[in-house]
Automatic annotation (TrEMBL):
Residues 438-601 form the Protein export membrane protein SecD/SecF C-terminal domain. It comes from the Bacteria. Residues 2-104 form the SecD export protein N-terminal TM domain. Residues 299-433 form the SecDF P1 head subdomain domain. Residues 230-287 form the Protein translocase subunit SecDF P1 domain. Coiled coil: none annotated. Part of the Sec protein translocase complex. Interacts with the SecYEG preprotein conducting channel. SecDF uses the proton motive force (PMF) to complete protein translocation after the ATP-dependent function of SecA. Belongs to the SecD/SecF family. SecD subfamily. Keywords: Cell membrane, Membrane, Protein transport, Translocation, Transmembrane, Transmembrane helix, Transport. It comes from Halomonas daqiaonensis. This is Protein translocase subunit SecD. GO terms for biological process: intracellular protein transmembrane transport; protein targeting; protein transport by the Sec complex. It is a multi-pass membrane protein.
Length: 616
């Protein structure tokens, strides 16, 4: 029989529409502006008396509190108005002091029954939700110095393996200089090193006891190193941002030595800055023997006890670059530790070093690159300059009991928070060069609220115009199309929520475009039905022919648009991807509502009934 669906098709459409309704509902419950209070080191607690003082203080300031949620080492204060966030944060910070971190936050308000179904609202981009924008600068001089240190260490190990005596090593700018007892040793060292290190220009200076080998890194090698430093830092920062769980972050290069990082929805700027900008790395070194020459050792203090020091070898066994995986846990005494897995090369080097040094101490050195501001006078004016410096501290010094392999653990950490952060940094990869914050901007949710309001208004206006046109042009069939259009928007929002897609301002533009395109298929079908009626077909035959003969045109038109959207997503960045995602999902939901949902409504209304005239 014409224009009748089997029962299973009606049930399928009903299930899809119900699922779309359920998973779009969380978007009716916007996130609450909130203030997050947490311990600076993760070991302090917030008691009821402190929370009561905070309540009283905020009440005196006229700041309305929705709710206070207590957690073991933190508290979340939900506010009624986003404009009160900054005032609340500043007031609480003054009360609690430096022991606690007080940060802005956005707290979910989705009902528990929806959360139990894994339903959550769409994530919003930086232009809608607010967040942080960082401009970072890569220290290329430090990258060059680090590479020269590594090369110098490898050269010394090579010379010791061939029993070629050298006196000392100096590193300055792009040059490594090594002193030898005589010219013969120097010439032998030059021929040996030049084969393994072709990126240097070699020069022999002096004779006899003043014989030196000067090695200068070539311009091409310096350029390749700088490109590597930027690309490696980009990869590491992307890994760190992924660990933070930020949706649709932007991490991209800007110019020769700068990186832009945008984190939508991040309100805890302290946490984000600490993770993104952390330059911590590890070095594993052997403790020096009493008879080791002074120029081959380095005195390094312990991180937790600066007055205690140890003499370590300058040569590094491995660094954090060799770590393939790391996670934090607790040892048998309940103290925090980090479990480390090494890659193949790192495991080989560690096994070789520990196998021949059983009974000797090995240190784990924690390295951080930092900056401090110093005030200098230039032409009679005080100018603040950024001075980079490096802190090295021993976090563990233990005796090698047996040869180590690809897996071992690090103890001696202060707190579980420190262990978790160290594991995160090692897992995401170390930076090839230190980075410094040149610019930091926090984009408040108020700007996002204005953008959302304008975007929603544009959707409403577009929807209203389409609805009016369809009603005037197609009468009853226009009602079917408008119902399908509303269901289309519902399904689109549900799909974006389920997939975790991020809505940006260009994404809203994609939704507006989808509204216009969503009725295209219905227009083609309805016009085709009109044509069939004019040729003299019966009502039932005209409806059936209209849907069947318009099908090919609808599929062709939407497939080509979908291909363009896929291309935009594959080659575009942030905003372009947001537009492509909403456009792609909108095309798929439009096809479903136009070809199945409207057909189901038409079938239920006219199918199998003696109809003499259509209101179309």
């Amino acid at each position: 029989m014409l224009n009748r669906y089997p029962l299973w098709k009606y049930l399928l459409i009903l299930v899809v529409l119900l699922a779309g309704l359920v998973y779009s509902l969380p978007n009716l419950f916007p996130e609450d502006p909130a203030v997050q209070i947490s311990s600076e080191r993760g070991d302090a607690t917030i008691d009821a008396r402190q929370l009561e003082r905070i309540r009283t203080s905020l009440g005196e300031a006229g700041i309305d509190i929705q709710a206070v949620e207590e957690q073991p080492s933190s508290a979340l204060i939900r506010l009624s108005d986003a404009d009160d966030q900054l005032r609340a944060r500043d007031r609480i910070s003054d009360m609690l002091g430096d022991e606690y971190v007080v940060a802005l936050n956005l707290a979910e308000s989705t009902p528990a029954w929806l959360q139990s179904l894994s339903a959550s609202p769409m994530t919003l981009g930086l232009d809608l939700r607010g967040g942080v924008h960082f401009l970072l600068e890569v220290d290329m001089d430090a990258a060059l110095e680090q590479r020269l240190e590594v090369n110098a260490s490898a050269m010394r190990e090579q010379l010791r393996g061939e029993r070629i005596r050298y006196r000392d090593t100096e590193i300055e700018e792009r040059t490594i200089s090594m002193a030898f007892a005589n010219a013969e040793d120097r010439d032998e060292a030059r021929s040996l090193i030049a084969r393994e290190f072709p990126d240097f220009d070699y020069q022999s200076v002096g004779e006899d006891r003043g014989a030196r080998l000067v090695m200068t890194m070539s311009d091409q090698a310096v350029q390749e190193l700088q490109d590597y430093a930027i690309n490696q830092n980009l990869t590491t920062l992307r890994n760190r941002v992924n660990e933070l769980g930020v949706a649709e972050p932007l991490v991209q290069r800007q110019g020769p030595d700068r990186i832009v990082v945008e984190l939508p929805g991040v309100q805890d700027t302290t946490e984000a800055k600490r993770i993104v900008g952390a330059t911590a790395n590890l070095e594993f070194r052997l403790e020096a023997r009493p008879d080791t020459p002074e120029n081959e050792t380095e005195t390094i203090p312990f991180r937790n006890s600066p007055n205690r020091t140890a003499e370590l070898m300058r040569d590094v066994i491995i660094t954090g670059d060799s770590v393939s995986n790391a996670n934090h846990s607790f040892d048998e005494n309940g103290r925090p530790q980090v479990n480390i897995d090494l890659d193949g090369t790192g495991g080989t080097l560690m096994n070789r070093a520990t196998r021949t040094n059983i009974g000797r101490n090995m240190a784990v050195v924690y390295i951080e690159h930092k900056t401090r501001d110093t005030t200098v006078t230039v032409d009679g004016e005080e100018v603040v300059e950024r001075e980079p410096y490096t802190e090295r501290g021993i976090i563990s010094l233990a005796t090698i009991q047996s040869a180590l392999g690809n897996s071992f653990r690090i103890t001696g950490l202060d707190s579980p928070t420190e262990a978790a952060e160290l594991a995160l940094l090692l897992r995401s990869g170390s930076l090839a060069a230190p980075i410094y914050f040149v610019q930091e901007r926090t984009i408040g949710p108020s700007l996002g609220a204005e953008n959302i309001e304008r975007g929603v208004m544009s959707v409403q206006i577009g929807l209203l115009l389409v609805v009016l046109f369809m009603l005037v042009r197609y009468k009853v069939f226009g009602v079917f199309a408008n119902i399908a259009l509303a269901l289309n928007v519902t399904l689109l929002i549900a799909a974006m929520s389920l997939l975790g897609a991020t809505l940006t301002l260009p994404g809203i533009a994609g939704i507006v475009l989808t509204l216009g395109m969503a009725v295209d298929a219905n227009v083609l079908i309805f016009e085709r039905i009109r044509e069939e009626l004019r040729t003299g077909l019966s009502v039932q035959q005209a409806i059936s022919a209209g849907y069947e003969r318009a099908f090919t045109s609808i599929i062709d038109a939407n497939i080509t648009t979908l291909l363009v959207a896929v291309i935009l997503f594959s080659i575009g960045t942030g905003p372009v991807k947001g537009f492509a995602v909403t456009l792609s999902l909108g095309i798929l939901t439009s096809l479903f509502t136009a070809l199945m949902v409207t057909r189901a409504m038409v079938n239920l209304t006219y199918g199998g009934k003696p109809v003499k005239k259509l209101w179309i």
